[in-house]
Specification:
Structural class: alpha/beta
Strand content: 25-35%
Distance between the termini: 34 Å
Oligomer: single chain
Order of helices and strands: EEHHEHEHHEEHEHEEEEHEE
Radius of gyration: 20 Å
Length: 298
């Protein structure tokens, strides 16, 4: 859920400003960066709950979600087990919804970003009418979502639960549970942090290249700041995009919340959802990805 904080960088901390690729050290595989404490990242734990606000940010969005794309296989398996309509919450540009439709499932994608929904629809139409006919899109904010039909599988993937205000989470879970068929499933994932690790290092900075295939080179520095009192985090992305004729610098920010696993489990139970399966994947010494499969009472 990116919100733009400017389209140029009149004032940017020097230690966080990526330089253009032409300034790389000879033989080095990463850009030269001013300042210390910046990590050259092969993966970016905890940075994945974002959505583009303009077309070019879709590349950054894809780079952040890419390392977590293995969830497509797991979710497809769940869809085959459920054998029914699928609800994709926070669907973005169709990372899950379109592949599901290609596999023959009827999918409703919900997102508050109309540009994302437009790209999802265009992707489906490019594949063909059979896929496009299986895709339905709904523009809505998850915090105030009202559903109209019943589903066999609901997905809250890409750690979207971390992007939802904690006060709004019980309401969304109750709404989804009320629209799951008996025995239906809600699958969700989130980034779990060791709180002690966050207290020891409340600020982290990552540098990475954004993979693009449109002739533009893009480098980004992401500054991640945790607030344990508020159980929240803010990520600021400083990006440089260089094309053949011009270069631009953009600042994007996203706000997220740190998930308390015990509280989330209690909210699921209160909504009538039982955690049936739990998968964990360690990202680094202080962070892991958690994937939950929750069954509705039936």
């Amino acid at each position: 859920m990116h919100t733009p904080s400017g389209t140029s960088l009149p004032v940017v901390p020097a230690a966080l400003a990526p330089v253009l690729p032409s300034a790389r050290l000879a033989g080095a595989g990463a850009p030269v960066l001013v300042g210390a404490g910046i990590r050259d990242a092969d993966f970016l734990p905890g940075l994945e709950s974002v959505s583009p606000v303009e077309e070019h940010s879709a590349w950054l969005h894809g780079a952040l979600l890419g390392p977590h794309s293995a969830d497509i296989v797991r979710c497809l398996r769940l869809a085959r087990e459920a054998d029914g309509p699928v609800l994709d919450l926070g669907c973005g540009a169709g990372r899950l919804a379109v592949p599901f439709a290609r596999h023959g499932f009827e999918v409703e994608g919900v997102d508050r970003d109309p540009a994302c929904l437009e790209r999802l629809g265009a992707w489906g139409r490019r594949i063909g009418p059979q896929v496009s006919a299986r895709l339905t899109t709904t523009r809505a904010d998850l915090a105030s979502l009202r559903l109209r039909r019943t589903y066999r599988l609901a997905l809250l993937a890409g750690t979207m639960v971390c992007a939802l205000p904690p006060a709004a989470r019980p309401g969304l879970l109750a709404e989804v549970a009320a629209h799951l068929a008996p025995g239906g499933v809600l699958a969700l994932d989130y980034t779990a942090h060791r709180l002690r690790g966050l207290a020891e290092e409340p600020q982290r900075t990552w540098a990475f290249e954004v993979p693009r295939f449109d002739g533009v080179e893009e480098w980004a520095v992401a500054r991640q700041v945790f607030d344990l009192e508020e159980m929240s985090e803010r990520i600021t992305y400083y990006t440089v995009r260089t094309g053949k004729l011009s270069s631009e610098r953009v600042v994007l920010t996203t706000d997220k919340w740190i998930v308390d696993p015990a509280r989330l489990t209690a909210e699921l139970q209160a909504a009538g959802l039982c955690v049936e399966r739990r998968f964990r994947h360690r990202l680094d010494e202080r962070t892991e990805s958690v994937f939950l499969v929750c069954r509705a009472a039936g």
